[in-house]
Amino acid sequence: MPSSRFPIPQGTLDMLILQILSLEPAHGYGIAQRLEQVSKSVVQVNQGSLYPALHRLEQRGWLKADWRESETGREAKFYSLTRSGQRQLRVEKDSWARLTGAVRLIFDEGAAQ
Amino acid sequence: MNRIFNWFRQRRLEDDLDRELQYHIDRRVTDLIHSGLPEPEARRRVTLEFVGATQLREEVRDIWLNRWLRDFVHDLRFSARSILRTPSLTAAAVLSLALGIGATTALYSLVDQIVLRALPVDHPERLVLIDWIGFQYAETMGTTNLMSYPICRDIQQQTQFFDGVFCRAATTINLSTSGEPRLTAAELVSGTYFSVLGVSPALGRLLTIDDDQAPGSSPVVVLSYDFWKNQFASAQDIVGKKVLVNQYPMTVVGVAAPAFHGIDVGEVPSLWIPAVMSAKAIPGFETMLDRRTRWVQILGRLKQNVSLANAQTGLQSWFKAMLDEDTRRTNISRASAEHRREFLASTLALTPAPQGHSVLRQDFSRPLWVLFVATLVLLALACLNVAGLFLARGSARHREISTKLALGASRGRIGRQLLTDSVLLAFAGGLLGVVMAPIAVRAFIAFLPHDTAANDVHAHVDTHLLLFAFLVSLITGFLAGSSPALQAGRKSLDSSLRERGGTPSAGLALRRAIVTAQVAFTLILVIAAGLFVRTLSGLLVKGPGFDTSSLISFGIKPDLNGYSGAEESRLIRRITEGLRNSPSIQSSSVALVQLLLGGAWNNSLTIQAPTIQAGERYVTDREVQMNAVSPGFFATLGTKIVAGRDFNEHDALNVTAPNLSLPVSQSGQRAVIVNEAFVKRYFGGRNPLGARVAMGAAPDAKPDSEIVGVVENISYRNVREQWEQAYFPTGTELSGSNFYVRFRGTPESAFRAIRAILRNADPTLPISYFRTLDEQIERSLNTERILAALSSSFGTLALLLSLVGLYGVISFAVNQRTREIGIRMALGATRLSAIWLVLRDALVMIAGGTAIALPCVWALGRLVESQLYDVKPTDPITILVATLVLCSTALGAALIPARRASAVNPTEALRFE
Lengths: 113, 913
Prior knowledge:
The structure holds 2 protein chains of 2 kinds.
Chain A: E1 6-7, H1 13-23, E2 26-27, H2 28-38, E3 43-44, H3 47-60, E4 63-69, E5 75-81, H4 83-112
Parallel strand pairs in A: 1-3
Antiparallel strand pairs in A: 2-5, 4-5
Chain B: H1 2-8, H2 10-34, H3 39-49, H4 53-64, H5 67-85, H6 87-116, E1 127-133, E2 139-140, H7 149-156, E3 162-176, E4 182-189, H8 193-197, E5 201-204, E6 220-223, H9 225-232, E7 242-245, E8 248-256, E9 271-274, H10 278-281, E10 293-294, E11 297-302, H11 308-329, H12 337-344, E12 347-352, H13 359-396, H14 398-406, H15 411-447, H16 463-490, H17 493-498, H18 507-542, E13 551-556, H19 565-581, E14 585-591, E15 601-603, E16 605-608, E17 617-619, E18 624-629, H20 633-637, E19 641-644, H21 649-652, E20 670-675, H22 676-683, E21 692-695, E22 705-711, E23 725-729, E24 738-743, H23 747-761, E25 767-772, H24 773-780, H25 782-816, H26 818-826, H27 831-864, H28 876-902, H29 906-910
Parallel strand pairs in B: 2-10, 4-9, 6-8, 18-23, 20-22
Antiparallel strand pairs in B: 1-11, 1-12, 3-4, 3-7, 3-11, 5-8, 6-9, 7-8, 13-24, 13-25, 14-24, 15-18, 16-17, 16-21, 19-22, 20-23, 21-22
C-alpha cells in the first residue's frame, strides 16, 4: 500500500545507511531492500536519494567501497563502514536517542494534562 | 583536496556510477519478474522508478566536485575556446597585460631587493641605526650616518636599551692570497658585529669581543662564504691560513654563514676585518680612537621589551652628558661660539634598520618607488584597455548573451563566465610578463653604480616574485573583467533586446574620456623620451673635448702598499719610463684627479694681472676646477694649446716647500695653465699670459704662479659641464697616479703591454681601475642613459597601450553604430564617408589628448630642464615629431575598425529590424 509508506525524514537516511552497513557490507540495492524489509515496508527509499547519500558518505570517509562478487555472481559495488564511520554512527545514534527522548517527554507531558 | 583529486579521475567515477546503477536496475527487474510480473511490465516499472536518473547523476557529480569548481572548469574550457576564436583581440589583450605585469613585476623585484628585504639574521625588526643629528665637529671619512669609534664603545655600555651594538665601515683593500694582488671589498667591523646580528660561522669562528682590544692587536679576517667558495674553492683547511691585507699578514679565522652578505645590499664585502686593524686596512688612518673623526655607522639591537621611542628618549640624557664632556675633553674649546652651540644642540636619532644600512638604498629608494608607481599607472592603463576590448567583444557577443539569458542562465553565471575570460587572459599575460621581468631587471642592474664591491641585486625569478606576479595577474584579471561582467549582469533582457540598434551606451562616453587621457599621458611620455634621447645623443656628439679613441686610462694606489711620497714619485717615473719605451704606446702622462668620474678639486684663485695696474688683484667669483698634470698631458689627450706653452720638466722639478701649497720649480718659478673658459670669464678674452695667480681667497695669498699657457676646454667632472679650469704641474707635492695613455694598435695589445710594465715596476701594485676612455665616457653618461632608456621604454609602452585602447574603443563604437552606418549607406553614403564617420571620432580623442598634453609639457618642463643638454623642454621639433608619431600611429590603429565600418553591408545590418 503506497499510502502507508513514508519517505525517509530528511537527515535520517545517512544514519540508517550507517546502521545497516554496521551489520555487514552491502551494495546499494541490498541496502534499499534491507531498509524496506527491516522496517516492514514502512520506510521507502528512493534511488534518487540513496545513491547521492552513499557517495556523500564515501566522500566524507565514513564508508569505503570495493567491487566484489555479489550473491548473484555479478560484480557489485559493496559499501562497508570505516572506523570513522563507526564513530559517526555512535554519535548519530546518541543524538537521535536524545532527540526522540525529548520528543517523547513533550508528548508525555501533553498526555498527562 | 580529495575533490580536486576527483577532477582527474572523473571518467572512472562516471563508469563506476554507471555500473552501480545498472546493477541496481538489473536486480530490480529480476526481483520483479520473480514476484510474478511479466518481463515487459517489470522493465516498464523500473524505468519509471528511474525517471530521475539524470538528476541523480548530477547530484552525485556535485558530491564528487563542488558545483563552483565544475562550473569553473567548464567556464575555463569555454573561455579558452572563445578566446582562441579571436586571436588578434586576444594577442592585443595578452600583450597589454604582459607589458603591464612584466614592468610591474620587474620594478617590484628591484624595490623588494633594494628597499624592502630584511637581512637574513635573527629578528631583523629589532635592528636600529643610531645616528647623530646635528653638528659633530669632526673630520669625515665615508658616506652617510657616520660617527666615531669611541662613541660606539660608549653606546655599547647602554645595556638597558640594547642587547648589543656594533659599528662598521666599508673599505677597499689590496688583498694578496696567492698570485696577483687584487682590490677587494672589505668591511671593518667591531667585534660585536656578528654576535649582534646573530650570524653563525660556516667554518672556524667569527669575530668576537676579544678582537676589539688595543689597536693593531687582532690581525685576523673572516671570509664571506661566496668569496671562500670562489677564491679558495671552498678549501676546508682555510682556517689558520695567512692572507696579505695591504701587504700586512692577517690570519683567516673563519667563514661566515652562506646566506649572509653583509648589511649593505649595494656593497657586498668579501671579508671582514676587526676595526682595531683599521690602520692596516686604511693606509695612513691613525685616528681610530679619536672622537673627532667620524667614519663608522653604528647599529644596535633593541632589547625585547624596549620600544624605539623609549630607547631614543632614554639615550638623550647620556648623550647630552657626553656632549658636555666632549667640549672639555677635546679641542672644541677652541671652536667658534656658533659651532659650539650647534654641537651642543645635537641629538641622537634611532631609525629602524631591519634591512641594514645601504647608501645604494638611500640613493635609489625614492626613484624606485616613483618608477614603481609609474609602472602601476601603466598596468592600470593596460587594465582599462583589456576592459575596453572586452566591452567591444561583449557587444559583439550580444546575441549570444541575450540568448543565454532567454534560456534561463543566471546573470551571475554569465558575469562569472566573462570574468573567467579576463582572468584567463591575465594569467597568460602574467606568464609572459614573468618571462620578460628578469630581462628588464638585468637591464636596470647594468645601470647601477658598480665598483670593486659587487651588489646583491639579482635578476632571478624566485617564489616570492612568482607569488607577486600571480596576485597582480589575478587582481588585474578581476579589474579588467569586472566592468563587462557587471554590464552583462545589469542589463535586463527586455532592454537589451530593445537596445539592439539603439543609442551608444553611457559607458562609451567614459571610455572616450579615458582614451583621451591615455593619449595625453602618452604624448607627454613620448616628448620626454624625445628630449632625453636628444640630450644623450647631443652629449655623445659633443664628447669631452678631446679624441677618446686609442686612449686608455688607469689608476694605481701605491699608498696601499706603503709607498712614501718620494718613493711614489720614483715609481711613477719608472712606469712612465716603461711606457715611453713600449712600441705600442704613443704617449703617456699622469694627472692628480681622474677625469669624467664626477670628482674634482675645487678652490678659489686670486688673480693679479700685469695688464691691470700693479697691485690690483681680484678673487674668482666662483671656485675654479683644478688638476695637476704632467708635461705632455694635453698632447696625449690631443687638446690644443692655444697660447703660450705646455709644462716642461723644469716646472715639475720641485724643491721642498712645506708651507706653500703650489709647486716651485728649480728657479723658484711656479707655472700654471688655464683654459679658454677661464680666460673668457676673468680676462674678457685679453691675453692672460704673464698674469699671476695664488691659491685660495685669503687676503695674504701671494700670487706667485705665472700663467704660462692657455688650453682648449675639456670635460672634467662630466661631459656636460664647461667650467673654468686651472692646471698645475705634478711633482712630489701634487703627485698624480692616474695615467692617460695613447696607444697604437688594438686596446687588447695595449692593455697587455701596460700590465707587463706595471708588473715589472711592482708585482704587488694595486690597480684601482683600468679602462679605455670610451668606456669612461660611457660610464660618466650613465644618468643620461638611464633617463633616455627609461623614458623611451615607458613612452613605447604607453604608446602601445594607448593604441590598443584607441583600437578597442573605436571598434566598440563601430559595432554599436553598425545599424546607423548601414542606414546611411542604404541612403547612398559612400564607403569613404563611412570611414570618415568613424575616424572623426578618433580624431576628436587624439586632438583632445594633444590639447591636454601640450600645456602639461610646458608646465612639467621646468622639472627636467636641469637634466637636459642643448635642448629646451619646449623644443618645437621634438614636440612636433612626437605629436606626429602619436597621431599617425593612433590614426593607423583607428583605421582598422574604420575599414570594417566601410565594409558594412546595408542589408545585413538592417536585417534584424
